Amino acid sequence: MGTETRFVEYEHDGTLLEGMLAVDTSITGPRPAVLIGHAWAGRTDYENDMAIRLAELGYAAFALDLYGKGVTGSSAEENQALMTPFMEDREKLQARLHHVVDVVKDLAEVDATRVAAMGLCFGGLCVLDMARSGADVKGVASFHGLFGAPTNTAGNKITAKVVAFHGYDDPMATPEDMVALASELTNAGADWQIHAYGGVMHAFTNPNANDPGFGTVYNAAAAQRSWKAFTDFLLECFAD
Predict the structure, then answer these.
(1) Beta bridge partners of 10
(2) Which of 41, 188, 220, 237 has the fewest Cβ atoms surrounding its Cβ within 10 A?
């Protein structure tokens, strides 16, 4: 007994994808699910480990894949090349995200009425787009995510709860971007929170982030604070 993982293949728009599900086998029956949206490199051990951590809290945790089975980047140039098509076609991104929500809801371990999502960096933008485009999730949590709004969701109402955990010194999401997100969420009628951490840069939850020149630096205090707030957020989402 304990935490077990298995890989789940699914297909969207002609692309074979592969996510990883983590569950605590001492729990029987369906339980709330949390999707994990990956950073720009694709689904890696970083996201898989996050899924295991969430499974240990009793959730069915699914590290999703947007790029394709086995597809990951190993440099900034490769990562950018993988992410750019989705940044340039947000409707395609949203369609793929909605599909993976449906895939997860069909898993035997999942209570399909209680699904939430978290995302890291690019994945943070992805889960915000889930909320913006009306994906059937209770709440979304963006960790050091990108904030830029798509052009196809203006005027939509956001029913999912939203929280963004943000480094105030993140060069990829400026204070002006943060305020713009707050205004967007307010106009959409969302139940929203933004937790901004002073002196903190991008990728602050990733222990391997150590490039101040690029703006990616791990911060243990912000990582711990955001995780605690996130677990409280999940309890709130699934209490309904």
Answers:
(1) 17
(2) 220
